[in-house]
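User: Predict the complex.
Assistant: Input components as received:
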Amino acid sequence: MADHQYDGPIEHVLRELAPQVLGAVARRFRDFSSAEDAVQEAMIAAFTQWPQEGVPENPRGWLIQVACRRMMDHVRSEIARRERETAVTSEAESLAPTLEIEADMDPDDTLILLFMCCHSALTPSSAIALTLRAVGGLTTAEIANAFLVPEATMAQRISRAKQTVKASGVPFRLPSPHERTERLPAVLRVLYLIFSEGYASSIGSHLQRLDLAREAIRLTRNTKTLLPDNDEVAGLLALMLLTDARRAARTGPAEELIPLDKQDRSLWDRAEISEGIELLTAALSKGSVGLYQLQAAIAAVHDEAERVEETDWPQIMALYELLKRVSPSPMVTLNHAIAAAMVHGPAKGLQLLQALDTDSRLAGHYRLDAVRAHLFEKIGDHEAAIKHYRIAATRTTSIPERNYLMTQAARLAGD
Amino acid sequence: MKYILMMTGKKSDFEGYARWSKEDFQANVAFMRAFSKELKESGVFVSTEGLGWPSEAKLVRAGKNGEPITDGVFPESKEFLAGYWIIDVESSEQAYKIAARASQAPGPGGKPANMPIEVRPVLSGHADLGL
């Protein structure tokens, strides 16, 4: 990449085209796994050639052509290998793709890929990696860099994920409406995990790292174009935008974490907030209430308060009560307790937290202690607050979180 | 040549650290950030990681059937790794100099803590420990 001015646009062109190209090639050769490798090679070829030679007039056709050539090389070497063992004839003929392949572009291809990559047989980390590569059009190096693992590790993870997809025998076609409803939650979960990973690690000067939160927003936006009538997709996109809007305010000059109630709200991204609220309003007006829409609604109530004192806590508490019914989880109970504490006082919050002491899913999780510490502080029991801040600090797996919690304990101990 | 600089401490050291004042703690964090930045800017930085608290540490052995048997009980005198840096430098002297700089990280009262940093060469060749 000698010429920097091409960096952005070429990356964008490639990322948009990748799933279309992969869809066309996988459909033609009926081999997702090899097609995925071939498309990746074509992308890398484009990365090295386009900056020098310029973006071809028909970039999609160019990529398909290069990927097909790679596929043919692969098929030929497979046949040659088999011919050495048995005599295979005319297979090469029947497999030779005509370059008309370009014509059969299908907008559903991206959707098929998305469902394939978020297959329930895959672990979340495998599904994330495969989705970013096959649907997101990212290179293995970029994905490895985003997750701070060596490239060879990520390559292996992706290759194993593809083997799992292959072994599951899922055909390259759009799932039936019934299957789609059943499998969409897994797809949305993977997209949300990509976003969360990006949001949690967006602290610090990782300018060299790919922005996973932005990438997740882009993928979810594309998914919304493919499934325009699905309110949960809209809800998820709204949730991402309404959360991402606070990005600039959530860390201080020394990259320390700044909690929601201490953030400089003038730094919030108004454009993202309005887009999120618009999406959410449209989805809610249709009367459906899903997991992501509710979370987006909660984010929206926070975002709409110009000052922290103006936060509509009764509304947030009511939304968490709904969420507890729609999608109960200890994390929801925890957040509900925080909202209840804001409405009815910290004692009420502490009382609600007791229900979580026996929940093994949250046992030893730092968030429970962090919230308890915060509520004990509000009630004026500094000794208990310090104790729980310190326990939380020893349990969190994030250094900025640990620094934040230790600072809270130290602040109270110094008073 | 690569060297690893290891920051270690006993459980009591960690507990002490958790009781530092807010100012001391923040000064230490600021120092560590500046130190990492220095390493990067001088072209010697390879990697760095901070580790979880000793209370989260487990000692694992394989049981009869190969299943993990975990133990969280450690002698009070055990040194726990708190974090490390790997640097790529010209000489051991340069590594020691950098380690001494890390050792000066401010402690209580803002004075250099002079904590010990264990420095060891990282072997070249293959990373799979195929010794």
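Residues 59-85 of chain A form the longest helix (27 residues).
Let me know if you want any component modeled separately.
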